[in-house]
Specification:
- Helix 1 packs antiparallel against helix 2.
- This protein is α+β, with helices and mostly antiparallel strands.
- Strands 1-2-3 form a 3-stranded mixed beta sheet.
- The two termini are 75 Å apart.
- The protein is 64% helix and 15% strand.
- The protein is built from 4 helices and 3 strands.
- Strand 2, helix 4 and strand 3 form a beta-alpha-beta unit.
- The chain folds into 2 domains: 51 residues; 74 residues, GMP Synthetase, Chain A, domain 3 (2-Layer Sandwich).
- This is Stage III sporulation protein AF.
- Keywords: Membrane, Transmembrane, Transmembrane helix.
């Protein structure tokens, strides 16, 4: 910030000096040479800070960013997995309702601990539905491609 202030001060002083020199320059053929010299002087004073001390770029923030991105990606993956679980649970409940089977609860969990995510399905149903076990397993297997764990309640 200090360098920027010094640069602005130099520009102001240069402009004031150029204006004074321009007023004092004679109106003869030397006026064009004097104007060219003033313009060249102004241009060099504008460019000199960039040439004498070029700005330093610090890329350390970028090198730290992938770690933050990994944490953010993990949070996003967890959120997406949870939303997918909720949607799959709702779809399976609706599938059971359309089939005329009343279940108490369904729990779907997506596990990303392995290279390929796995899905686990648990269905809680009344013990009176034990005769429909194969039918319920087939519904879930057709919908999600996994065999559910069916838990009977009293």
């Amino acid at each position: 910030m200090n360098g920027l202030q010094e640069w602005a001060m130099t520009i102001c002083i240069t402009l004031a000096g150029a204006a004074l020199f321009s007023m004092l320059a004679p109106n003869s053929g030397m006026k064009k040479v004097a104007t060219f010299s003033i313009n060249l002087f102004l241009l060099t004073s504008l460019i000199s800070p960039i040439i004498t001390s070029p700005p330093e770029f610090n890329f350390s923030v970028i090198s730290e960013q992938p770690e933050e991105n990994e944490e953010l990606n993990q949070l996003i993956d967890q959120h997406v997995d949870r939303q997918a679980e909720i949607m799959l649970e709702q779809n399976c409940k609706q599938l059971f309702e359309e089939n005329g089977t009343k279940i108490d609860q369904i729990k779907i969990s997506i596990n990303r601990t392995e290279e390929i995510p796995s899905v686990e399905v648990s269905v809680w149903a009344d013990s009176s539905l034990q005769s429909k076990r194969m039918e319920m397993e087939q519904l879930i297997q057709n919908q999600l491609g996994v065999v559910p764990q069916i838990i009977y309640t009293d």
